[in-house]
Amino acid sequence: MADPRPEVTNSGMPDTPPPRPSAVPQHRGVAAAGVPGSALHVLQGAILVIAILYFGRELLIPLVLAMLLSFVLAPVTRGLRRLHLPRPASVLVAVVLAGAVILSMFGLVGRQATSLAENLPTYQTAITEKLGRLQASGGLIDRVVSTLQEMGRSAGARDKPPASPPLAQPEALPSQPTNRPIPVEIHNPDPTAFEMLQRVAEPLLGPLATAGIVAILVIFILLYREDLRDRLIRLAGARDLHRTMAAMDDAAYRLSRYFLAQTGMNFGFGLVMTGVLWLVGIPNPLLWGFVAGLMRFVPFIGSFIAAGFPALLALAVDPGWGTLVWVLVLFALGEAAMGQVFEPLVFGHSTGLSPIAVIAAATFWTWLWGPIGLLLAVPLTVCLVVLGRHVDRLEFLEVMLGDSPPLDPEETFYQRALAGDADALAEQAERCLKEKSFAAYLDAIALPALRLAQADAVHGALSPERREALQASVEQLIEDLEEAEDPEAEDGEAAAPLPAAWQVPGSVLCLPGRGPFDGLAAMMLAQALQRRGFGVQVGGMAASPATPPKLLCLCLIEGGSSTATARYLLRRARRRLPGIPALALAWTTSEDDTQAGPMAAPIAAALRAEGQSAPLLLAANLVEATDLAAEQAAAAPVPMLTEPAPRPEPPALGMAPAPA
After folding, report:
1. CA dihedral 587, 589, 590, 594 (to 10 degrees)
2. Residue 515 in contact with residue 457, Cβ under 8 Å?
3. How far apart are CA 533 and CA 497, in angstroms?
4. 289 with 271: CB under 8 angstroms?
5. Residue 617 belongs to what H/E stretch?
6. Any bridge partners for residue 553, and if so which?
7. Range name among 373-387, 434-448, 485-499 with the lowest pLDDT average
8. Residue closest to 426 by CA, chosen among 481, 470, 487
9. What's 482's DSSP letter?
10. Which one of 3.30.300.30, 3.40.50.720, 3.40.50.261, 3.40.50.2000 gives the CATH number of domain 499-634?
């Protein structure tokens, strides 16, 4: 029979190590975004996708252009279908109208470009003369250039070694012949008619072929849109039909709204710039208006690039500098008005991209596909964000590229409080208080953040230094928000004033529980009650034995204290202050409310059972607690001052008269 004891070596130590205690799972407040597999798989997939996009751009660019144009023309096709046109006819009419608009626009722009090309030598001469006058007028540029050249020559003279005397060359004899180069000129024969046609047609064949492929693809995508959608659903998996349909509808809505709104806004911007450039006197204003509208598809820098060409022409057509200043000012004002006024008013944040993502996308797609990639950067990145929103394994795309906050408000509060950043907490509170009341803000953000901190403290994941920083930050926030004003109520009715007896300091006593952050919850409840007009005291039993409080509030956060502790605190407070109405705030999250009800939480259930012996007001959040306190103050009997009864007359002093 084998000995179950471990073998012992000569050193006296067991040969097999003792079993280690099992690791305690740590609490994680914020779940990581979904990522596909390991880092190696991610890298391999990224390299493969980039290689396909780069080497297959000749095929992918027409396909992407056709898909995006189909998004734009889909509303037009649906409108024609409502006019009882058949699907093929409505698709052909929409494509023909779009082609006519594009061709007419390019025709007008082509005429303007031809006129500009004819006048380019004149403009070049005028710009050269103006720059020459600028250089010669003040003399500053000449002096700077001359000084730099002189410094360069002097430095070169010091570094250059002394030149050796030239060697004597033997003189050529009179009878020796000299070899001189003979000039030779090569003339190409005049091109034939076929060669001329080939030279003209070759640069146009590529764009015309791409345009034809795009038009054919647009027609077939619009004709078989439902069939393509069904096939995509089959590829994505018919079992998850709802999520697939939601992703496709979200992508179609975002892209259609973006393209329609952006195209309309850019078209209007181009028309306005055409008019103002014509008024200023810039040649070919229609060409530069078209360029200005087209370059607005390029994020951030498109308008600045478009302003460069009219600025150069302003130097050529105006002997002074006034036209140049007007052009720069008009472009700056137009871009500011579009970016800060009209675009937020028309479609707001329809793309769902962060500014950093827009810059990164523009750089990436320009590197891959050139100028076409620069124009398609935003819509292609929107597609990636939509995929990340509806596909769990690609959630990191939405986190990296989307404009939605990466953390929930309560998680942001917790992170700022851990960092000790009271200013950031105050900024977040000011933004929220524009829409919510003070108590609603605490219920929605501050107390859920304390619940996260409490869970970390219970699991031992919160160090004492972090806990002190969080405590100090939240206390500083509560102090800073004392003067903050609540937004006006929607119904416009102000809260009823409290009786004067409830406004005396110490009329409401807030007692914290024994949880890690029950004290902060008591401070928050005290400030919420003070905003309603109550006189509040935090901690202690009363201001003095002669002035007991009119309401006792016990503040606890679910999960911080045990049920036995909560019941003990309530009993002790009632023994010390007998006959005082009690209100218990057992704060719990809205998720717990929806799952099992606010009163099904352990502490709330224990306090409710304790309240069967004596009346107890039980609240699950600050808003409910302040409302219950106001109802208690309104229902409390008010001492009435009545007219005092007449006093009896005192008996007469002295001797009574003797009878006659």
Report:
1. -100
2. no
3. 8
4. yes
5. strand 617-619
6. 510, 583
7. 485-499
8. 481
9. G
10. 3.40.50.261
Lookup: tokens for 107: 């025709």
User: Is residue 569 a contact partner of residue 509, using CB atoms and an 8 Å limit?
Assistant: no
**Distance separating alpha carbons of residues 249 and 243, to the nearest angstrom:** 10
| Rounded distance between C-alpha atoms, residue 605 and residue 591, angstroms | 17
For 629, the token pair is 């306190």
Alpha carbons 37 and 40: distance in angstroms, whole number: 8
- Smallest Cα–Cα separation from 429: which of 407, 443, 446? 446
How many other C-beta atoms lie within 10 A of the C-beta of residue 619? 22
φ/ψ of residue 547, rounded to 5: -125, 80
* Phi, then psi, of 267 in degrees rounded to 5: -65, -45
Using the predicted structure, report yes or no on whether residue 653 has a pLDDT greater than 50. Answer: no
Q: Whole-angstrom Cα distance, residue 445 to residue 412?
A: 9
Give the separation between CA 386 and CA 397, rounded to whole angstroms: 9
Query: CA-based Rg of the chain, rounded to a whole angstrom?
Result: 41
Give Cα separations from 544 to 171, 540, 541 (angstroms).
127, 10, 8
Interatomic CA distance for residues 3 and 14, integer angstroms: 13
Question: Please, what is the end-to-end C-alpha distance for the chain in angstroms?
Answer: 137
Burial 406-431 (b: 16+ CB within 10 A, else e): eeebbbbbbbbbbebebebbbebbee
Residue 294, classed as helix, strand or coil, is helix
**If pLDDT is split at 50, 70 and 90, which confidence band does 52 have?**
very high
User: Given CA atoms 595, 599, 603, 606 in this order, what sign does their dihedral have?
Assistant: negative
Whole-angstrom distance, CA of residue 546 vs CA of residue 549 = 10
Are 615 and 494 in contact, with CB atoms under 8 Å apart? no
AA letter at 297:
F
Candidate ranges 77-91, 114-128, 200-214, 630-644; pick with highest mean pLDDT: 77-91
Structure tokens at 15: 């040969």
By CB neighbour count within 10 A (0-12 exposed, 13-18 middle, 19+ buried), where does 476 fall?
Answer: middle
* C-alpha–C-alpha distance, residues 608 and 617, integer Å: 9
Give residue 229's Cα distance to chain centre: 31
Domain boundaries, the chain: 407-486, 499-634
SS3 25: coil
